[in-house]
Amino acid sequence: MFRLLLASLLIALASPSWAVQPDEILDDPVLESRARDISAGLRCLVCRNESIDESNAELARDMRLLVRERLVEGDSDPEVLSFIVDRYGEYVLLRPTTDGANIILWVAAPVLFVIAMLSAGLYLRRRETAPEPSSGGLSDDEQKRLKELLKD
């Protein structure tokens, strides 16, 4: 029972809600809500697939503070995102944009999947209509050679 309580306490302490430190939280609840919305879509560059809100990395903390700083200075949400992307690159977005060269990445997987399914369908159709291989067996010369090989 004690181990179960200890395990649940450790899981609760490791949860993402503890990543944002109390000294980072803004006094204005509207700005804090905007900051949380923005930082939920930003990738921690240390942890890779966690948002900066979920990450305990020092870089994630710096990015959270930077988002809040820009909001306090009066930037709009798109301006804050633009500033962060200009500074850290588009990789920082958990959901990359679908314009420009990224459209190739968004379209490539479904297109390749459709091509693979069509190729598999054509292969199976040709295989059904292919003539059966002849079951004539081995010729006399081949049978003699096989017997010689098996004797050795």
UniProtKB/TrEMBL annotation:
One Gene Ontology term, aspect cellular component: plasma membrane
InterPro entries registered for this protein in UniProt: C-type_cytochrome_biogenesis, CcmH/CycL/Ccl2/NrfF_N, CcmH/CycL/NrfF/Ccl2_sf
Taxonomic path: Bacteria, Pseudomonadati, Pseudomonadota, Alphaproteobacteria, Rhodobacterales
A Pfam family reported for this protein in Swiss-Prot or TrEMBL: CcmH
Protein name: Cytochrome c-type biogenesis protein
The keyword Acetylation is assigned to this record: no
CcmH/CycL/Ccl2/NrfF N-terminal domain location: 9-150
Transmembrane segments: 103-124
Domain of life: Bacteria
Family membership noted in the UniProt record: Belongs to the CcmH/CycL/Ccl2/NrfF family.
Annotated region described as Disordered, given as residue ranges: 129-152
Native species: Roseinatronobacter monicus
Compositionally biased spans, kind Basic and acidic residues: 141-152
Record function comment: Possible subunit of a heme lyase.
Keyword terms of this UniProt record: Heme, Iron, Membrane, Metal-binding, Signal, Transmembrane, Transmembrane helix
Leader sequence residues: 1-19
GO molecular function, one term: metal ion binding
